[in-house]
Specification:
By secondary structure, the protein is an alpha/beta fold. Strands 1-3-6-10-14-18-22-26-30-36-39-41-43 form a 13-stranded parallel beta sheet. An eleven-stranded parallel beta sheet has the order 5-8-12-16-20-24-28-34-38-40-42. A seven-stranded parallel beta sheet has the order 9-13-17-21-25-29-35, with no helix packed on it. Helix 7 crosses helix 10 and helix 8 packs across helix 9.
């Protein structure tokens, strides 16, 4: 290819096109100078489908070398126009290599087919928009754009690499289909920074979607996305992810721009977020929320939905309950925990050591019994902290009675870990005063024992300790004197009993001491919480 038009004596190339351009390339050259759309579609949907098998001939084929020439060193715009590359329905042969280059013209390609990969590492653009294109691979590590990078409905046969890229405003991957590369990764975007939104609604990712240490200025939306990496550990690998606003792993309305929190219009099919493989969001920071509403996670027994040490004002844990795998919230910190009972996995598959939350906002029925089962599922081995945190949150919400029930459940759970003697003493405290959380129970037991012993002692025949001076026999006062170990009413020492009555008196004295000790221990524990 002769690179340039007529050459003037000083060696400067005039703005004419190269002499060996094809007809399709010549038309593209002129459209570039005019800033107009260069459309080579035939009008037949089947023929024009860039992802179909219908061959595209030379009449709609341009060389990647010519495209690079236009973008890096193209001719000036026509008078009153702005030079721009706007291609529709064009086939690009050869590797489009703009590595390290600075591209000033606006770039927009739609319904195009690329025979080879696009190479944009360390390139600089204003805005790049590739829509519904067939691309073998996009290699764009350390790419820098002042504006958007749009890749909606594109299909990538061997993945995308955007490691350490800097996207000035929005990154759009909605409805894209991305296959994995030779390393099993579909999207490699570790360390990437996006100035505003990363929209990947209805994305299909076949491989690992990597966003390690990535930063998104506004929201990251994966509404209705389908992530599949069943033969590896992770389908979404995004530790230390920072999102200025919200992360959405929620449903999307197919055929609509976006599905919000309201009921979709009639006729719109709702597609949930579906993940086949593990998810890692460890150490993430989210400015508004993490929304898992109606998300589906298909995990193996070794895979996890991991939210270790995540920090966010609101966690909406409302997914479909995973049948297998683990949910890990160890060390996470949230302000509002929005959840439902049906979303949490069972015992052995939920780990929440060090998980902190300030408010509970259940969606639908979530009884205290179910909440206690939630704690048991999260703590295969006894730990007091989850119970104390739940009690504090309930007390802060004005539910004092439920808070006491939680603390009582804590003591009963702890009791099962104690040696036999301590366990027996725990049972006595529980029966007597419910570990101090139901002090009125002691009065009930005292009244029952007093009434029963009074009835029994009314049939006894005691003898006075001193014949010359003794009070009048009163079974009620005698029983009460035995049951109250600290108070002396003068009856227990004034009368003597023999045989079985003497043993009954000893039992009452023992029960009185046990009751008094249990009450004292319970009140001490109660006062310690005030």
């Amino acid at each position: 290819m002769t690179e340039g038009g007529p050459v003037v004596p000083d060696g400067i190339r005039e703005p004419g096109p190269p002499r060996d351009l094809t007809a399709a390339e010549s038309g593209m050259w002129l459209a570039f100078r005019d800033g107009s759309v260069y459309d080579l579609r035939h009008g037949d949907l089947a023929v024009d489908d860039p992802h179909g098998r219908h061959p595209w001939g030379p009449e709609r084929t341009v060389r990647a070398r010519v495209v690079c020439w236009l973008l890096l060193d193209g001719p000036p715009a026509l008078a009153g126009r702005v030079a721009a590359l706007k291609l529709v329905g064009v086939r690009v042969t050869g590797s489009l290599d703009l590595a390290g280059g600075t591209v000033e013209p606006y770039v927009e390609m739609a319904d195009c087919r690329f025979d080879d990969e696009i190479l944009l590492p360390e390139a600089k653009f204003t805005t790049v928009r590739l829509e519904n294109c067939a691309i073998p691979r996009l290699e764009a590590a350390r790419l820098h754009t002042e504006g958007d990078l749009h890749l909606p409905r594109c299909r990538f046969a061997r993945g995308i690499r955007l490691s350490d890229a800097r996207i000035g405003t929005d990154l759009l991957l909605s409805q894209a289909v991305v296959r994995h590369d030779r390393h099993g990764r579909s999207v490699s975007a570790d360390g990437m920074k996006v100035g505003q939104d990363l929209q990947a609604d209805l994305l299909e990712s076949h491989g690992e979607l990597g966003l390690r240490s990535a930063e998104v200025g506004a929201s990251l939306s994966l509404r209705g996305a389908r992530l599949a990496n069943p033969y590896a550990r992770l389908a979404l690998n995004a530790p230390q992810l920072t999102v200025g606003r919200a992360l959405y792993l929620t449903p999307a309305g197919v055929g609509s721009a976006q599905l919000g929190g309201n009921t979709p219009a009639r006729g719109i099919r709702v597609q949930p977020f579906d993940c086949l493989g593990g998810v890692r969001l460890d150490d993430g920071r989210f400015g508004d929320s993490v929304d898992l509403r109606a998300a589906r996670f298909t995990l193996t027994g070794e895979q996890e939905l991991s939210l270790r040490r995540v920090q966010t004002p609101e966690l909406r844990f409302l997914p479909v309950r995973p049948r297998r795998g683990r949910v890990v919230l160890s060390g996470a910190r949230v302000v509002n925990l929005v959840d439902r009972a049906e979303s949490w996995p069972g015992p052995g598959r939920l780990h929440m050591g060090g998980f902190c939350y300030e408010n509970l906002v259940p969606q639908g029925p979530f009884t205290l019994e179910q909440r206690l089962e939630w704690l048991v599922a999260a703590t295969p081995e006894y730990s007091p902290e989850p119970y104390e945190l739940l009690a504090a949150v309930l007390r802060g919400g004005g539910e004092d009675e439920d808070a006491r029930e939680v603390l009582l459940a804590k003591h009963r759970r702890r009791r099962e870990t104690l040696p036999p003697a301590a366990k027996l003493w725990g049972y006595l405290q529980d029966i007597a005063v419910a570990y101090g959380y139901r002090p009125a129970r002691a009065a009930t037991w005292l009244a029952v024992l007093w009434a029963a012993s009074t009835l029994l002692f009314s049939r006894s025949e005691p003898t006075p300790a001193r014949a010359e001076e003794h009070p009048e026999w009163s079974p009620a006062l005698f029983s009460l004197d035995l049951l109250l170990p600290v108070i002396d009413l003068g009856h227990a020492t004034a009368w003597h009993l023999r045989g079985v009555w003497q043993w009954l008196a000893a039992v009452l004295i023992l029960l009185g001491w046990v009751m008094a000790t249990a009450v004292a221990a319970g009140f001490t524990r109660l006062l310690g919480r005030l």
